[in-house]
Amino acid sequence: MAKAPASPFDLKGALVSALATNSRITQYLIENVSPEAWAAKTPDGKGRTIAAIAAHIHNVRLMWLKAAGAQIPAKLEESATVRETLNALGESHEALARLLGTALESGGQVKGFKPDAASFFAYLVAHDAHHRGQIASLARRLGHPIPASVGFGMWEWSSRAKEL
Questions:
Q1: Reported pTM
Q2: DSSP H helical segments within the chain, as ranges?
Q3: SS3 39
Q4: Confidence check: pLDDT of 2 > 80
Q5: Residues 72, 95: contact at Cβ < 8 Å?
């Protein structure tokens, strides 16, 4: 008996889904930052607080949405609470997912970003990951490291995807 041909791989769906998982991982980390570390000044008094890093993630997303001519959610202040930050990151993720999905369906270009939508996806994931590393490092330097289970949990993409 002949094996049925495999369905074509849905690259658009896979990238939009992976972007959602990436966003969930960022939220997962923020949910697990110690309240004492959230707005604490850096040990040397220079640089962003964890709250400010999280606001930066959201606000850079808004910059790209604006450049692409998409509707943008409200900017996030560096003094935002964890709950406000999680809500804002959810809103900016949803807007980016729509933008990415539309770009992948209509020629693979994101207005204002070169070279293409796949590179835009990679940029977004790399940006979040870079700042997740900063958040984890700063929490440790502040004396409130994230739990080891959370550190490992950020690499459990299938577990985080199930939380969507």
A1: 0.95
A2: 11-31, 35-38, 50-67, 82-105, 117-141, 148-153, 157-162
A3: coil
A4: no
A5: yes
CB 163 within 8 A of CB 24: yes
pLDDT 10s digits, 62-92: 999 999 999 999 999 999 999 999 999 999 9
Count the alpha carbons within 13 Å of 57 in the hemisphere toward its beta carbon.
Answer: 33
Give residue 5's pLDDT: 79
CA dist 67 and 70 (Å) reads 8
Contact 89, 74 (CB under 8 A): no
Q: Are 93 and 19 in contact (CB under 8 A)?
A: yes
- CA 59, 60, 66, 71 dihedral sign is negative
Could you give all domains of the chain from N- to C-terminal order, each with its CATH number? 25-162 (1.20.120.450)
Tokens of 91: 């809103």
**Unique residue bearing structure tokens 């939220």:** 27
How far apart are the C-alpha atoms of 56 and 67, rounded to whole Å?
Answer: 16
Q: How far is Cα 19 from Cα 75, in angstroms, rounded to an integer?
A: 21
